Amino acid sequence: MKNIFFYITLAFIVSCGNERELQLPEIDKAAITEIQDVSVAYLFYDETQPDSVLLNRKNLISTTNWLVNVDKRLTLKQAIPHIKFLQDKKKSSSHKNENAKNYFTCHDLSINNLGFLEFTSTNYNVEKPEMIFSDISDLKYSGNIHTVNFEVNEDILIFPGYALDINIATDKKEFTNEIKKLDTLRGRIILNFHKNLKFEDYILYKSLLSNINLNHLSISNQEYLYN
Predict the structure, then answer these.
(1) Higher per-residue pLDDT: 69 or 161
(2) pLDDT of the residue at 89
(3) Per-residue H/E/C for the chain
């Protein structure tokens, strides 16, 4: 398929004869601003029915890069099950392209155009957040496993692996600096997101993490939702 270039912050999509508004999450200075060979899916928010989510995936082609447009007003509880469904759909397709990836579409404020965040290898754990403990026990560097909880009130709690009874309370302004302070030994960062966190905030945090240059730590591709 051809390149797709958007020059909008709000996407107005005609679906089933109805015009729908999709508000993209905003980020700053995306690492990826152009993708070729794409097909597109949409997750709409219905403001008349706050718990309603509409997935439009009729234009997806399994061998292309997928651009998933998620309305920023949706909560993770609403959006993630549909995102997992799309991931499973692509993995189970009989027609595969191992080089095809999945991206969230965002509005990049620095260029007033689209930016993209990749989520191809992200595994979302919704049903059993206690699996985090088995993941930790399997890691070689279990003494240096840091967990991060992203709350709905914009608070961020960091639980450093070196001290079970200590947590570091921070916010999005200081988050990057706090993570860098932990980047002294080999280990892993595990991310936990509150189910009621807005997708806009989720993308903001993921964008911040993607821009941190870590020398010793790595960020787990296992992400967990909690109540």
Answers:
(1) 69
(2) 94
(3) CCCCCCCCCEEEEEECCEEEEEECCEECCCCECCCCCEEEEEEEECCCCCCCEEEECCCCCCCCEEEEEECCCCEHHHHHHHHHHHHHHHHCCCCCCCCCCEEEEEEECCCCEEEEEECCCCEEECCCCCHHHHHHHHCCCHHHEEEEEECCCCCEEEECCCCCCCCEEECCCCHHHHHHHHCCCCEEEEEEEECCCEHHHHHHHHHHHHCCCCCCEEEEEEEEEEC
